[in-house]
Amino acid sequence: xxxxxxxxxxxxxxxxxxxxxxxxxxxxxxxxxxxxxxxxxxxxxxxxxxxxxxxx
Length: 56
Hints:
The protein is an alpha+beta fold. It has a domain of 29 residues. It has 1 helix and 2 strands; from the N terminus they run ββα. It has a two-stranded antiparallel sheet. The radius of gyration is 16 Å and the shape is flat.
C-alpha cells in the first residue's frame, strides 16, 4: 500500500519581489525517482511529447 501523508505547505520567498508564496506539495516526490526519457524538454508539456513519440 502506498504511503500517505498530509499535503505539505511551505513558504518560499520570491527573490525578485520579496513576496512570500505558499507552495503546496513542495518535496512530495523527494523519496521517489522521476524517470524521464532522453529528449524530453521540461519546458514543454510532457504528456504531449510522450504521446508524439508513441505515434511514430
